[in-house]
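Possible regression after last week's pipeline update?

I re-ran a chain I had predicted before the update to compare outputs. Posting the input and the new output here so someone can diff against the archived version. Not blocking, just want to make sure nothing changed silently.
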Amino acid sequence: MELALFGAREDVMGNGAETVANAGTIGDEMWASGAISEAADRLVAEASSYNERIADVRPASPELAESFDELLFRAGETRGRGKLYPYLGSGAGNGALVELRDGSVKWDMITGIGVHYFGHGDPDLMREGVLGSIGDTVKHGNLQANWESYAFAETLLGEAKKHSGLRHCFLSTSGAMANESALKLCLQKHAPACRVIAFADCFMGRSIVMSQIGDSAGNRVGIPLSQHVDYMPFWDPDAAAQMGKARYIDMAVAHLVQYLDRYPGQHACFIFELIQGEGGFNVGDRDFFKALIDVCKDRGVAVWDDEIQTFGRTDRMFAYEHFDLGEYVDVFCVGKMTQVCATLFTEDYNPAPGLLSGTFTGETPTFRVGRRIVERLRDGNYYGPDGSNARHQRAFREQVGALMKKHPAWFPAVDGLGELCGGIGGMMRMTPFGGEKAKIAALSKILFEEGVIVFWCGHSPYHVRMLPPLGVMNESDWPRVFEVVERGMARAAKELGVG
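New output (post-update):
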């Protein structure tokens, strides 16, 4: 019966399986229905006929400006917390281009901080969402779930298991909750240990506990501090080059041992961001991580790998594969690109009943879309030294390099920063205007107005950050994107008095 169910849904998911004959339940018959499949195709084709009309950047329509401003005001009043980021989508988009409700079309180079790797209006993912909407319920939970949630978890685990000891997957509705689940696993396993170790400049989410662990004072203003956190310096390639790599790593190991000796038996986990996202798209080093992991393993401290922003964007699907560290990972978190957030863990960290639960785990369309994304990452040509992620990183660097050569005054040297253009794969950053926060924020606003959506990351210096939709973006798009970037930077330089 279970095989028939799984097979029937495979067909409606559009993955090439044959329709299952003699389905065992009414649900099986529904999912195997050719009429439903054809109706989904017609809906997607009709929507795509509109999305395909979006082909280039365009300014806002003056006729829509007043209504757009009114909607922004209403949205801000509804949510609170002051002025809203000026993005309200119209519901239409085409790949890396998105239309807003003011009629403007912009290059989306931040994709919801990494959520929309396959861009806007992707027909394949739209189809999964359409089919997911016709199930008997939209929400799934830990008490009552249809198979779609487990199909997503199995698909993700199928890839994670290839180069790690991860064996189980618990789903949640946000990255912060995935991290909360990971922390619970580590605390229960190593009770009564109550401290955690994290890297300086880390970001963990905005729940009460995650705001305390994240290394940003502004994100925990007014929050009582109850979680004990010790911070380790992240890998610094410039410092390592000056000191010598071996000496630099020895210093980091001594720093870690000092914490463990100061609070013997009190550290439940070390949270590894192998590539920092909010911290500045800082790329780590395997030897550095391995030396710290060896200490953790020797002292009974869990190794927790946080890849909520990193997943799928390096030259491997998992950053732990990029660094060849999968065998050492005890607990792992993923989100953003996968649509569904998840905590994966080894058999040793399989918790006692009652520790992990929750009313909601996600929605049927989300599970179907998330599963399809993992399948496309698995089956596509995204990874390896000549995969599309690496090629796009090279194309990005070429564009920034040309901009730096043409406008050197926009890119002054920054103390302690080795390169003004960095990142890895689909995580891209550049550091103009000396990395000054106010100037980077002003530039990001101007680029938005000109037609490129970016954001910033880092802490003194700050960087312009891009998380482009590489799943659908063409390498030939980069000159078009940077034509707008150059125009926006020229305007910003003039307004800010740079160069």
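Follow-up from reviewer: compared with the archived run. DSSP finds 17 helices and 19 strands in the chain. Marking as no regression found.
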